[in-house]
Amino acid sequence: MKVINTKIRDLFIFEPKVFDDDRGYFFESYNKKTLDSLLEKEYTFVQDNESKSSYGVIRGLHYQLGPFSQAKLIRVVQGKVYDVAVDLRKNSPTFLDWVGVELSAENKRQFLIPKGFAHGFSVLSETAIFQYKCDEYYHPEAEAGVIYNDSSLNIDWKIKAEDIKTSPKDLLLPKLEGAKMNF
């Protein structure tokens, strides 16, 4: 597995070794021992989530407050998304910086997002099936977020404004200046 560093410490992109032949392909999508040795840090994932969305959907920017914050290992099994992680760790030199990466069934890339980040994605294909592992269970009382179109972040979601679809709940998320953060 190839590890790609991003401009933000602890935020990584993984490219698995894919074995293709005339029957199809095979790759190891997760191996705890390999991941831990590559990162020199241990993650213990306890929950897997999956969503299906159509073109133009933006989900996010979501996170859970401490002590229930989550690290996530993300991949796309069908379609293509633009995945974004925003550093909300107040003592980080990259506080409020963000990284976006295209994840697709074709490129098979994965995105490791540590605790202390807001996360969201936009769907660039007709549909996308999105999967991610979490190292903490979902706690509704710890749910928090930042509205996807906060101008101080200036995220280009790769979707025309007139094509954007988001949930009523996500439209109520605050801008950064009013968001709860405790990382």
From TrEMBL:
Alphabetical list of InterPro entries matching this protein: RmlC-like, RmlC-like_jellyroll, RmlC_Cupin_sf
Keyword Isomerase: yes
Gene3D superfamilies named in the record: Jelly Rolls
Record-linked PANTHER family: DTDP-6-DEOXY-D-GLUCOSE-3,5 EPIMERASE, THYMIDINE DIPHOSPHO-4-KETO-RHAMNOSE 3,5-EPIMERASE
Taxonomic source organism: Methanosarcina barkeri MS
Pfam entry (one): dTDP_sugar_isom
Residues annotated as the enzyme's active site: 62, 132
Marked site: Participates in a stacking interaction with the thymidine ring of dTDP-4-oxo-6-deoxyglucose: 138
Protein name as annotated: dTDP-4-dehydrorhamnose 3,5-epimerase
Lineage, uppermost ranks: Archaea, Methanobacteriati, Methanobacteriota, Stenosarchaea group, Methanomicrobia
